[in-house]
Amino acid sequence: xxxxxxxxxxxxxxxxxxxxxxxxxxxxxxxxxxxxxxxxxxxxxxxxxxxxxxxxxxxxxxxxxxxxxxxxxxxxxxxxxxxxxxxxxxxxxxxxxxxxxxxxxxxxxxxxxxxxxxxxxxxxxxxxxxxxxxxxxxxxxxxxxxxxxxxxxxxxxxxxxxxxxxxxxxxxxxxxxxxxxxxxxxxxxxxxxxxxxxxxxxxxxxxxxxxxxxxxxxxxxxxxxxxxxxxxxxxxxxxxxxxxxxxxxxxxxxxxxxxxxxxxxxxxxxxxxxxxxxxxxxxxxxxxxxxxxxxxxxxxxxxxxxxxxxxxxxxxxxxxxxxxxxxxxxxxxxxxxxxxxx
Length: 342
Description:
It is a single chain. Helix content is about 25%, strand content about 20%. By secondary structure, it is an alpha+beta fold. A hairpin with a 2-residue loop joins strand 9 (about 230-235) and strand 10 (about 240). It is globular, with a radius of gyration of 20 Å.
């Protein structure tokens, strides 16, 4: 395992194997943070305006595949404590973090630098990553780090609340699509993985990326981020910077929800850029089907006039294909498209 970027010091220039080819570089780093990304107040649904909230959710999922939620019911204190413990983790001594690192892809709790494809990728990402399973909690929590000492308590509490939030959002989306009540309360949401990204200050941010352009392979992603701008969404041929709103979660549609909705909802392409001044930390909670779960377009959304656009598959097969193709958005879905009948 290569040395984590967070262990480096006094880096004055970007190592050659972190420099992206010109066509893949982020270019203009001064993209202003946009308030075009829909912001949805989830408390409105509880105040009797459920229909309007659902309409806004569906519109955001169709047009952007991205939105932010506020008044979501998760305490500000828990969000702050959890982000604090993530930052503390990446500032632990190098020797301690080394013990968390592993090249073994079967290890369910591990830290690494760049990506899971470090050994074969042509260019490295300017990030360190720590990820582990977190649902069901009782199955995984004992495998998490014992230090920082608050890690298991804070992250466990946040994981439970984020899973509840995902269920609320999916319930609203399900209703908006016209699916039966509880459509997603099963193996379609049987797994949740947490991925914490840490992007240290970068000496030459215009030459590299924290994460390259991709769409998420799972069902729904809920992102907790600090106050440093770095997340960008691709829409209408241009990149839009997502403003980190205080106490909000960023939510984006994954490929599985695009497939289940038969193409009605869109999984948005996004990336992360770096900066030269300050570190950025974000934690993505990936809500996903269990490995053996069969995923297909919802029958209620298909008929002779709207045939299924995708074939049925096991989620683990989709995931294997996704990572084999490095998340290439141009080819991932093609393998799962239904055959067209002339």
